[in-house]
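FW: tagging you since you asked about this chain on Friday. Here's the raw sequence from the shared folder, copied in full. Didn't touch anything.
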Amino acid sequence: MELEKEENKFRETLEKGLREFGKISGNVSGADAFNLYQTYGFPLEVTQELAWELGFEVNADDFHAELKKHQELSKTASAVLFKGGLSDTSEITIKYHTATHLLLAALRQIIGEETYQKGSNITAERMRFDFNYPEKMTPELLKQVEDLVNQKIQEKISVEMTEMSKDEALKLAKVSFDPAKYGDIVKVYQIGDFSVELCGGPHVQNLSELGHFKIKKEEASSAGVRRIKAVLE
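HL: got it, structure written out here
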């Protein structure tokens, strides 16, 4: 059933893209080719083939210029999102940043898949992480979360980064923030099969660099939002 929905959605997008292509008369500009790529998922090669069948040319140089411009905007947007939670990009804050990804994944596994980041703040001394949850977490739940994070650290999992289109990334990862805030091309950081997140980075290369994760405090942040303070020892 889900596969059928995806196929129908793909077919509808393809048909819309073909209609959009039909509105172009004559040679295809780089901007038009990029619009077909960004909005309807048409690779440059497909647009070129459609144009050539009609005896038209596609301005590939301008297409690549548009693509590069949007990639740069994406990197800038990602950097702004990333910088929002960190005081700097020192080695220790990068470790804490990776730990926030582990914490979110652990919370999703222990208290529910619909757990989202509501805010974070990282310094060289500690990490602070806000998330949606309706009540105070019990000591038992906190211990389960802490143990799961440390288990993953002990497994020495590599942290992998891939750049892809935002649409493709959103099929792989749940996002805690408005998808519109991300650029068209995004970085996706994956930690084995445990965590996958859209993120500007940077992160450690392997979880073994993190040491030991310790939750120091859990408290209310605002209505329906809890806050965990934790350190790496």
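FW: The beta strands are 117-122, 127-132, 159-165, 185-191, 195-198, 213-222, 225-232.
HL: agreed, and The mean pLDDT is 88.
FW: great, closing this out.
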